[in-house]
Each structure stands twice: as C-alpha cells, then as structure tokens.
Amino acid sequence: MNSKKVTYILIAVIIVLLIVFVILKWPKEKKEEISEYIPEQEITESQARQTLVTLYYCNSETGELLPEARLIDAKELIQNPYKTLVELLIAGPKNEKVKANIPQGTIVNSAELQGDMVILDLSKEFISGVKLGEEEEKKIINSIVNTLVELTEVNSVKILIDGEGNREFEDGAINFKEPFTKETI
User: Fold this and answer.
1) Which of 27, 90, 136, 169 is an S-S bond match for 132, by CB 3.0 to 4.6 Å?
2) CA angle (123, 93, 104) in 5-degree steps
C-alpha cells in the first residue's frame, strides 16, 4: 500500500474514533430539577392589595405637568375611585420636585361616573380668589383631567362648583360650562 492510502485510512479511523468518543461522552439532556420556591419574606395582605395610580402635578422649576406614580391600598379606590384620586391630588405630591396646584381648602363634595364622564363637584374654594391667568388655570384643570382619564372608563370631566355647572375662575379665563377632555384644555 502506498503511503497516501495509509494516511487516509488513519485519518478516517481517527475521525470515527472521535465521533464515537463524542457520542459516548456527550452529556445527556439534563432533567430540569423542580424545587418549590420559598420566598425570603412573606407578602403581607396590605402589600398584596397595593395598586399603582398616576397623579399629575406641576414641576416646581418648569411649571409643566408631570406624572407622579403612587402606590396606594386598592381598598381606598373601591368606594369612589374618582373622589379618592382628586383628594390625593389636593393632599399634594410626595416628590419634592413637583407641587400641588389645586387651590388650598378645596373639598371634593362628590365625584361620580356618568357614562364615560366624571361629574366632579368641588367646593367654592376651588375658584375663590383664583386669578392666576389662563395658563396656570389650565394646569389646574389638566392636573385633574389627566389624573382621572388615566382610568380606562373615563374620557372627560365635568366640573361643578357646589352643585352649579356654569361657573368659572374669578378672572373669567376658564369656565366650567362644558366637560373637559385631555384634548380640549
């Protein structure tokens, strides 16, 4: 035999031996070990009930509206989510970079959903002495509207003052004759 044939046969034998070795030594598919997950700390009932809401406040520096995410107990939203959200707005932000813009002393008399519109009845403190100009007053309205329309069932907000619908801020820049939507103000 010539040396070329011997070399080819030797290479073929080595390849076959490598293939056999790889097949025999190749790790078999490992079975996934299933073990029970044990949390390091149990979740309390109040933690399990928490939900995230978005409230809109004015940036202290730029004046633009910014969302503030707030984790609250979902039980707070069961009775009247619309009233609760506006009361949270009135109470003010947790973040120091934003500020509340709803006039102090404002009380939510009622808030109810009719169709896809929230009828929001606020106390007279909402408009008394408020002469901030159209831009600042729009921010107050947008703060309320943007917060409430975060809820999927809400598309607009009608603002009443002590039960009356045709009211306005004292400077007359914005009136409450028509409902507000995210796009209209």
Assistant:
1) 136
2) 30
Give residues with Cβ within 8 angstroms of 110, minimum separation 6.
Answer: 83, 119, 120, 121
> Can you give the three-state secondary structure of 115-136, one letter per residue?
CCEEEEEECHHHCCCCCCCHHH
Concatenated DSSP letters of 63-117: --EEEEEEEEETHHHHS-HHHHHHHHHHH--SSTTEE--SPTT--EEEEEEETTE
* 8 A C-beta contact, residue 121 and residue 112: no
Tell me, what's the pLDDT at 48? 61
In the chain, the amino acid numbered 64 is E
pLDDT digits (tens, 9 = 90+) for 45-85: 655 678 889 999 998 888 888 999 998 888 888 889 999 99
Which residues have CB under 8 Å from 168's CB, separation 6+? 127, 174, 175, 176
- The answer to whether 157 and 118 have CB atoms below 8 angstroms apart is yes
Reported as a pLDDT band with limits 50, 70 and 90, residue 174 is confident
In angstroms, the CA 101 to CA 142 distance is 10
Distance, in Å, from the CA atom of 159 to the CA atom of 170, rounded to the nearest integer, reads 15
Spell out the domain ranges in the chain. Answer: 45-161
Say if residue 14's pLDDT is above 70.
yes
